[in-house]
Automatic annotation (TrEMBL):
The keyword Metal-binding belongs to this UniProt entry's keyword annotation: yes
Name recorded for this polypeptide: LIM zinc-binding domain-containing protein
InterPro entries attached to this UniProt entry: DA1-like (IPR045218), DA1-like_dom (IPR022087), Znf_LIM (IPR001781)
Lineage: Eukaryota, Viridiplantae, Streptophyta, Embryophyta, Tracheophyta
Record-annotated membrane-spanning stretches: none
Record keywords: LIM domain, Metal-binding, Zinc
LIM zinc-binding domain segment(s): 143-203
Length: 509
């Protein structure tokens, strides 16, 4: 891209030299004028005198005119006429606009050469000062072309700032074609077509693929996702543009996100690794229980885990008396009350970017211990589903270990730390074991390999995004609680932090 600093939009570049008629016509006109000068002096009282004829070829030989004592008066008169003609010519030259004048030094040399030839006593071959068409025959002060770095000798040239160009060398720095328009853009020392410069510097919306409009203040205003750097027009925030419920990216024109039966929307990347029903989620659930056991935090009770839809989860939230929920949308819940919930036991088939024929069943959850069940929204990517399970399993561990009457910030904060730790372990293992496969693999094979534990770069990027969400959450309980808990764990370790929470109900300082 071209640099955006010191940008000037220039118009009407300075043109040096001009175009006139053909070379032959201009030569003929000049010689007629030249002949008239001598005709004036020779027509006064010199019958049978020799008149200079207009030369037809450039290398003709002019015989010197016969000179006598009687011709001296006429010679002085001819000198005066010649000086007068030269003065008139120079006067007309000064009336020309700047950039189109003949060089003054050349005129004087030219006149001097004419006078020297007129009074020469020898008969040298006629070798006149070369005549060039205006704008072609006069060197332009040894200027160097800024395009080809060659000296500009003859012809028109363009002056841009302190640089000069042959017309064909004045080219766009982007497309490399000559700039022929009257207006162009200049960035640093590089010229651009206005259209090329706009293409390089004016941001385009990644949703509608149009140039982002200028607001009433004359500024380019756009929205940008803080993690994905997706730039889009401000209007897309309220024009019902679809947004992925998992990664928060907006649906671009020409793409179709997946619509779930409960109204949620998933992008392609999140859909490819989505956990779809309760049976499919069991291996992931048991692997996270093993993760807890590896940290000497084994969960002794067999706590049921169910994937549910949005409506079923909201109903369970209403029935849960002591639940802590992350608004605006809850994705998981650790139940401690006896309830009947509807779980998804068969993943629906995909039809026209919609999921249809989803099967569910009502399931009674009797209370046999402090924790009744763990509920998680269906259809979320594997890493997000695992992060929710790690969070809810920490709630279960705290209740089963007798941690009571904890503040919202302390309980949610330490649960977010366990979720973050599990994600970090998964992302690190993904970086070590990612196979060097083509990113253009089919979605079906990609989806199957992802769910079986073979992670991809795309899934790894999603995991980093979910970690970023936890670390930068703005809510006091989840965001503030996580940062306080994470600081304590980094300083004292997880075991000492949990022991301090059990004794005091707060994080160690």
């Amino acid at each position: 891209m071209a640099p955006t600093s010191d940008i000037n939009h220039l118009s009407h570049p300075c043109i040096y030299g001009d175009f006139v008629s053909s070379y032959t016509e201009r030569k003929s006109g000049f010689m007629k004028w030249f002949g008239k000068i001598f005709n004036i002096g020779s027509s006064r009282g010199r019958g049978g005198g020799r008149h200079l004829q207009q030369p037809v070829e450039e290398n003709m030989v002019w015989p010197a005119p016969a000179r006598s004592l009687d011709d001296r008066a006429r010679s002085r008169k001819e000198e005066e006429d010649l000086d007068h003609a030269i003065a008139l010519s120079l006067g007309e030259n000064f009336k020309r606009p700047t950039g189109y004048r003949w060089r003054t030094g050349t005129d004087e040399d030219y006149a001097k050469a004419l006078q020297d030839r007129r009074f020469s006593s020898a008969h040298p071959p006629y070798a006149p000062v070369p005549f060039y068409p205006r704008g072609y025959g006069v060197p332009l002060h040894n200027r160097t072309c800024g395009g080809c770095n060659q000296e500009i000798l003859y012809g028109n040239c363009l002056g841009v700032g302190h640089s000069y160009f042959h017309p064909d060398c004045f080219r766009c720095h982007s497309c490399r074609y000559p700039i022929t328009e009257r207006e162009f853009s200049l960035s640093g020392k590089h010229p651009y077509h206005k259209s090329c410069f706009k293409e390089l510097t004016h941001p385009k919306c990644e949703v509608c693929h149009q140039y982002i409009p200028i607001n009433a203040a004359g500024l380019i205003e756009y929205r940008c996702h803080p993690y994905w750097n997706q730039k889009y027009c401000p209007s897309h925030e309220y024009d019902n543009t679809a947004r992925c419920c998992s990664c928060e990216r907006l649906e671009s024109r020409g793409e179709r996100y997946y619509r779930l039966e409960d109204g949620r929307i998933l992008c392609f990347e999140c859909m490819e690794s989505a956990i779809t029903d309760t049976g499919e989620c069991q291996p992931l659930y048991h692997s996270i229980r093993d993760y807890y056991e590896g940290m000497n935090m084994k969960i002794d009770q067999q706590v049921p885990m169910l994937l549910v839809g949005r409506e079923a989860l909201n109903e369970a939230i209403v029935g849960e008396k002591n639940g802590f929920h992350h608004l605006p949308e809850t994705r998981g819940l650790c139940l401690s009350e006896e309830q009947t919930v509807t779980s998804v036991y068969r993943w629906p088939r995909i039809g026209g970017h919609r999921l249809i024929s989803m099967r569910s069943q009502a399931q009674r959850l009797p209370r046999k211990c402090e924790v009744t069940a763990i509920l998680v929204l269906y259809g979320l990517p594997r890493l997000l589903t695992g992060a929710i399970l790690a969070h809810e399993l920490m709630h279960a561990w705290l209740r089963l270990k007798g941690y009571q009457n904890l503040s919202l910030e302390v309980e949610e904060g330490i649960c977010q730390v366990l979720s973050y730790m599990w994600l970090d372990a998964e992302v690190m293992s993904c970086a070590r074991t990612t196979p060097s496969t083509s990113s253009s693999a089919s979605s079906s094979s990609y989806s199957n390999s992802s769910k079986k534990g073979v992670k991809s770069l795309v899934e790894n990027k999603l995991g980093e995004f979910f970690m970023n969400q936890i670390a930068n959450d703005s809510s006091p309980a989840y965001g503030g609680g996580f940062r306080a808990a994470n600081q304590a764990v980094n300083k004292y370790g997880l075991r000492c932090t949990l022991e301090h929470i059990r004794l005091t109900g707060n994080f160690p300082l």
